[in-house]
Amino acid sequence: MLTIDAQRFMRRHESLAKWGATGKGGVNRPALSADETGARRELLDWARTRGFAIYVDPIGNLFVRRQGRSANALPIRMGSHLDSQMPGGNYDGVYGVLAAFEVLETLEDNAVAFDAPLELIVWNNEEGCRFSPTTMGSAVHAGSLPLEQALCAVDSEGVTVGRALERSLHLLGSLTPVDLGSPCSGYIEAHIEQGPRLEALGLSVGVVSGIQGIAQFVFEVEGEEAHAGTTPRDKRKDALRGAINLVEDLALAIEHDDDVRFTVGKFEVAPGAINTVPAKVVFTVDLRHPDSEELARLVQVVQVVSSSLRLRCRVHCRQILNSPPIKFDAAVTAVISESCAKAGIDTMTLPSGATHDAKHMAELCPSGMIFIPCRDGISHSDREYASAQDMIQGANILLASIVRLADLTSVGTSDQKHERV
Ligand code: HGY
Ligand code: MN
Ligand code: MN
Asked: Which of 18, 32, 64, 224 has the fewest CB atoms within 10 Å, counting from its CB?
């Protein structure tokens, strides 16, 4: 049975971990930063050494391609992301990129020929923490986010995605352009679960059934600066108190069942002086639910609750992401389950609480995901950790699933579709 080169795979993980290393086990590798560009460049150098072709689409997603036998077979794709939270873990995203790259190398080492080309996609800006929204690159590629809107997104220093992308691509060497929305026959992403379920059940591989829905908002609460010592309470337009009042009402109106996830992740107060009544607060809401109707209802609730003045302060609510839940393709999830069964690995089918680029790929082609456990379900943290054993086993399941997918989509003549040349 074909298996990956585990030592090479773990060596490559260690090598990419230096880009943005926090020294506390995680990485701080924002999208298109010097560190993420360094990690992208290193991966592309490995790809060039192997003779793989390299492409880039207009939003900076990278495609590493291993050619197939047939000139007109649609590519089969794998992928994930190299950008991280600020700071984030050393496995979220990078695990799936390296597992996919190792699959390309293992097939190359064993001279296994597919009819279809096989591609690894390194998505741009999956995390959405430097530039909003999350899964930006795959959303643009799949056509659910306009390219121009994404290129104009700015970070906290006012740098646009367009400017940062120009600087980053300039450092990656020559890349052949490819269009957005390029067709393919299937997509599988390997990723850490970022939750506790697999570990709690002692399972080392999960077959992902789908991804829950996500809506994200930016709120601005506008009050007025005033003197902390002289301004009586009934004369104040205190944006901070207004924002707290609004967050409490939103939480009260929204958090009514265990499935809903309501997070205020960013909360900025201006002018931020100890002795001035705050004039402006900007905060974000990340709202998730597995049921599309319930998520749509909760989005309405957010809009109604935020439509009134808050302690005499004005409220502006801007929705920046609305991504309904998706189910993965049954044939692809069956291929992953069969690969686990053939390897004698117990597994379970579970939905993803986190969003992933696979969500947008599911709009373009039959897609699926493979999960491996992470310690205590912790992610988006320096403490994120996955064991070498689980990483290697997950990559072998990705390899077996891709080989199976290549056979199923093959137009080849020989009875054993993928053959060693
Ligand atoms: O937000 C998410 O779920 C992903 O980890 N970026
Ligand atoms: Mn991720
Ligand atoms: Mn993440």
From this structure: 18
Q: With 80 as the cut, is the pLDDT of residue 225 above it?
A: yes
Question: Considering only CA atoms, which residue is closest to atom 3 of ligand 1?
Answer: 354
Percent helix, strand, coil in the chain, to 5, is 35, 25, 40
Phi, psi of 122, deg, nearest 5: -100, 105
Residue 415: pLDDT above 70? no
CATH assignment of the domain containing 48: 3.40.630.10
Q: Find the mean pLDDT for residues 19-34.
A: 98
Looking from the CA of residue 135, the nearest atom of ligand 1 is 6
- Ligand positioned closest to the Cα atom of 384: 3
Name all residues whose Cβ lies below 6 A of ligand 1.
Answer: 126-127, 134, 354-355
CA distances from 259 to 212, 256, 274 (A): 10, 9, 39
Structural domain boundaries, residue 265: 213-323
Structure tokens given for 404 = 């199976």
Tell me, in angstroms, the distance from the centre of ligand 1 to residue 356's CA. Answer: 6
What's the total number of domains in the chain? 2
Domain boundary among 281, 299, 323: 323
